[in-house]
Design brief:
The structure is a homotetramer of 328-residue chains. The two termini of chain A are 27 Å apart. The model of chain A has no long low-confidence stretch (mean pLDDT 94). By secondary structure, chain A is α+β, with helices and mostly antiparallel strands. In chain A, strand 5 and strand 6 form a beta hairpin. The first copy, chain A, has a domain of 228 residues: Chorismate synthase AroC (Chorismate synthase, AroC fold, 4-Layer Sandwich). Chains in contact: A-B, A-C, A-D, B-C, B-D, C-D. The interface between A and D is large, with 47 and 47 residues. Strand 10 of chain A pairs antiparallel with strand 10 of chain B, so a sheet runs across the interface.
Chain lengths: 328, 328, 328, 328
């Protein structure tokens, strides 16, 4: 069960990078919700490469074709399926013989006994985040009508935190045939108190499960996160007061979640992306077809940094997670 | 669905801190596996409070009574249920009226409309991690026979990293009526390559979902984790070679997981615990029965630091997650 | 995943017939629902053997001890666990070497490689329906407050349809050392329209999945059921009209379910029970320890007919299935 | 959760009768399995209407386009998605205002608050069984290589049991503007002992859940089924002997399943289909847009009997259920 997710909202993701198409089925959406396809496409465009010198030169025209679940612009209550054709597929693409370090080439080879279609990264490709962004856009539109606003930003790229430094960091990596990672911070405001549950369906568990589904993510924290471990309880605790009949928290070190349940404060999380594993610099690896040592340099159309493109993916995961736990 | 977890191994956790008992049902265990109850009890003892001056003075005698699923010391294939009676229950305990900051008091009040039994933290209590430790011990014994060894340690408490500093840090917090958090690192060695899946069942998603089920956890990272965001790809990538016919990784920044699937290197993770929210220092809060501002000081039998006691809980989650994804 | 069920309401059943105890965890109950334990016990008593000459002479005192999830007589929202100790357990009981025909002895032996605790039928025993009845009673109490009334009856025992014939049929079977089966009909009135879904979560799929969980059930039908196959569409169709602003159906061949979704008419189902497999008449079988032919006669404390005792079990399944699909 | 099914094999079905396309995602297939698309198309052709005078005049060219999960004719281990375009869609089709009796028109109207796309039956249409047949064909090919053979037949149409009577029954119903139902019997031979589990994952529960997902199914029985209720235990029990070192059953009243687990004998089941609800004979109903009484006659392209076309659908459900519970 790798590609199905959720409790109320069920996501089923499918597709391979160089196959016919990729897509997603979203089950459990409430009926009668307007879906603005233009907004979905705008979100997909934010994720797509080829914008500028900072991302891959590949041009992916990610046009979502909605196959079911939408009628007269509104959800029908039946599963909503959208597919995105792989227009820019490279028919010459070959199965990679030499495992690219930190890719799924080796692990997929073991798990699927050599039968996985790993051209372009196959089902493991970051390209599969496009359907997630589509689903996230649908979820965000539904949540926006209920007062929830989600926004994310790259707060650090490599060692750079300002916008100009960020650009330089990426361009320097690109010039070196190297890559950089970074951190995306995401905030969901307007989330009501009472969503989630203790233990296995804690909002942290649900959201972390989604964030760690994004290729290249290696760390997730909520609210104060790892920094909380260096605070005293008296600093870390979010004190409360009543204001106009409502509870207000004097700080938000909990990131809007206590006991696994939302407390009405904004949900805040930070998601750590490792550097893109595909780099031009030559590295040691293994030819899986012969089990001989080899070297590999993955030049070509790869991104020196996927963090900027990952911002809408992180937003999508936040939206999907919240909608899944929405009460009523 | 808050208290049921898993794909092959299904866990169902139940109980409230001051109720009759707490416990767990483990479904999907292979039949014919020896369970050493002594070992289970030893793990429970590691988690229990009352050992020394560093933890709560409460004496919890966590004796697991196995009700089903074990016959002649071996698993039968039927669900294994264990319960732990709440011997040390305080019958005088009252529902807390004033929400303790950073506890689940407020969120549970909202979600369960005032009906949750929150005495001693209720179902949200850290006490509920005892059944998790029991299940983890069963899982560890099964995995150990398959060559997997799991061990964890507190690598930082507050700002202290050495053992003596750690002790001082905790005692200082205790003296101040305050509390501290920390980081637990866990390593699973001997895990075969090929476990897990891309996307929603990635080993990171599965394990993070479990780690974030532990009360007080606010951050999780694998391998290099957040530090990877400041490395170049050429540093972060785990290069590979063939050694004696087997793949060997020259580093383990991936924490044993690539593309969501284990690569045969040890799985490594770090789990961040916030400081214990119960402190003697007075804090601002709200009386939920009157919705008036109030102050609260949670003196008494609370731990100034739960991180040391959480070590076997983190190990348990690692064991359960791996066993759930075990192939054959 | 054999012992966990449900979408909103999660059931986890555990225990073996001659083990320490049997029980169930019910997760997902709304908070603040009163549970009348006396009513639960009354339902358990209806299922228990030893009432009269028509059932087994075994005395099972099925006292449900509630361990969690209930406080001040009301659900807390946390998982509700109840256990029933196996008081009447026969400590002399041996693993059966000769497989009893139509029991699970052989299939359990294969699946669990000889490690299943099959004393008294083990986890496969009809005794495990007691926890189901308990959970069903809780569900029925909650549904009753929402206007749903569930009742079942044995409409045929062997070839007998009247009460006196039924008694004679059972006593004759008992005298012959033989057994009989029968049909239980169940009706749920007051179910609102709109519960369930097309395809895999159709109300028929959900309820049939539960009914076929009851040991000895080999057939399930809804509304007209098998008899519908001999009607014309013009007879079978439930015509509709408006009456006092509400939809009324002129017949109920659909058994209250159309397109997998309730239509507001009573849900009706019939459940077929095979004859009790344990009989005194000698039969051919196999000694699984030696794989030699053998004969077996299961005399003793067995019921010549379980259908009457199964009535509350069928009601329980109906209640659980409806509550699982309840909207709000 | 209406459209997602399964434990090891996850099915996600989508599409509406007059929407763009229908389809299915199959997750959890083993990698390296050859899929013969010709065979899939042959199964789809068996289900398609327009063959002869016995079925609807609609011509549906059900061509499955495989979008993912297949490479070089073999499964890759990634989710396999197939879509079937709705070529014969009737763009003039209108939402039905008057609820067709025994259709989902009314129940969908209630559940989806009037937003369901019910043109041609929408997501509730029998047309959605085409993707099921596709998935079943993939499953059957995999199972065939493991020795499992599945075949079904209509054993009764209305009151007719011979082939000529069947034809006359259908033609008579057609001439009358009426319809008939019937019973499909399905047998799976070569299934190994040990698949399934007691209680909620019993093979009967799993298979019944699938069979009742097929629109128009109102009854399911295994082995002797309802007829077992009129046998004595001594007749109903399947006695056993050893033959050539293997267990042989002298009868198969259990339908190959005991205690929810396969016993190695063929799995046998019978599935009852109600008569097609769409008939030309005028019937009483309600105009849902005005809540006024109305009459309706559903003339046109409907089948007087869907049972013959349902035969491959029943086979598909059997194959999917067995593959989901396959061990290794």
């Amino acid at each position: 069960m790798s590609s199905v997710w959720g409790e109320r909202i069920k996501l089923t993701i499918f597709g391979e990078s160089r196959g016919e198409a990729i897509g997603i089925v979203i089950d459990g959406l409430p009926a009668g919700e307007t879906v603005d396809i233009g907004q979905c496409q705008a979100e997909l465009a934010r994720r797509a490469p080829g914008h500028d010198e900072l991302s891959s030169a590949r041009k992916e025209l990610d046009i979502a074709r909605i196959i079911s679940g939408l009628h007269n612009g509104m959800t029908t209550g039946a599963p909503l399926c959208a597919i995105i054709e792989n227009i820019d597929a490279d028919s010459e693409a070959q199965q990679p013989a030499i495992a690219r370090p930190n890719h799924a080439d080796y692990t997929a080879f073991i798990k699927y006994k050599g039968y996985a279609d790993m051209r372009g990264g196959g089902h493991f490709s970051g390209r599969l985040t496009a359907p997630l962004v589509f689903a996230g856009s649908v979820a965000r539109q539904i949540l926006a009508r209920r007062g929830v606003e989600i926004s994310a930003a790259a707060i650090r790229i490599g060692n750079a935190e300002s916008e100009q430094d960020t650009k330089n960091e990426i361009l320097a990596a690109k010039a070196n045939g190297d890559s950089v990672g970074g951190i995306v911070e995401v905030i969901a405001a307007g989330v009501p108190a009472g969503l989630g549950a203790p233990f296995f369906s804690s909002m942290e568990s649900v959201l972390a499960g989604l964030f760690f589904s994004i290729p290249a993510v290696k760390g997730v924290e909520f609210g104060g996160g790892f920094a909380l471990t260096q605070m005293c309880g008296s600093q870390a605790n979010d004190q409360m007061c009543v204001e106009g009949g409502n509870i207000r928290f004097l700080s938000n070190n909990s990131g809007g979640i206590q006991g696994g349940i939302t407390n009405g404060a904004p949900i805040t999380a930070r998601v750590a992306f490792k550097p893109t594993p595909s780099i031009a610099i030559e590295q040691m690896s293994v030819d899986l077809s012969t089990m001989q040592n080899a070297t590999i340099s993955t030049s070509g159309r790869n991104d020196p940094c996927v963090v900027l493109r990952a911002v809408p993916v992180v937003e999508a995961c936040m939206a999907i997670g919240i909608l899944d736990k929405w009460e009523h």
